[in-house]
């Protein structure tokens, strides 16, 4: 929308997206991602014990450690979105979450062999 040549950002009264809901959507996305990560970790632990018990125990332990690290990162981000005033994207937390996701993926590939 323009007013005298100036572009006004969408707001609650302008019919555009509500900026206040963005934090809630992001928080819910982190919750969904955590749930998905938990399911993937559970499946990895289950498949870890299909072969040797000793190797399965080590692999399952590694998966659980990666899962706990991801939960810590996700919980901190969700708490930031709930408690603090408007925050920009937490680059460190996002990179950390991506790292733990790649670690779980690598463990899954190892377990499939």
UniProtKB/TrEMBL annotation:
It is a multi-pass membrane protein. The chain crosses the membrane at residues 55-74. Residues 1-24 are annotated as: Disordered. Residues 19-79 form the DUF202 domain. This is DUF202 domain-containing protein. It is found in: Endomembrane system. It holds the Pfam family DUF202. The keyword Nucleotide-binding does not apply. It comes from Streptomyces gossypii. Signal peptide: none annotated.
